[in-house]
Amino acid sequence: xxxxxxxxxxxxxxxxxxxxxxxxxxxxxxxxxxxxxxxxxxxxxxxxxxxxxxxxxxxxxxxxxxxxxxxxxxxxxxxxxxxxxxxxxxxxxxxxxxxxxxxxxxxxxxxxxxxxxxxxxxxxxxxxxxxxxxxxxxxxxxx
Length: 143
What we know:
Order of helices and strands: HHHHHH
Helix content: over 70%
Number of helices: 6
Strand content: under 5%
Distance between the termini: 57 Å
Structural class: mainly alpha
């Protein structure tokens, strides 16, 4: 009989201890979610940096390479304009190319765009609000 009471007492103590540790476990899970979201954002930043380098290389190779040279050389040879008119045309074309390329880079490489496309902003919001990053509830969508 005594042995049964000891086991029952131990069980009650373990259950009480587990009950007392539950808030700490929830805090630990919350901190783990925040850290996971942080690593996710860092990975997105690394991918963004890689794309910046790749697009820079492509721009250097394609936009400023042989394509421009051949296009402008062909225009210079075949247009029946004066030298000043051809120069003005090439100046306008070059400015348009630079402007279009700059706007495209600004849009594609903006951090806000990357945060939305990769859902990193949602992962951070869910981690800070202590909600799961992988489940979508109806009341979450209303927020």
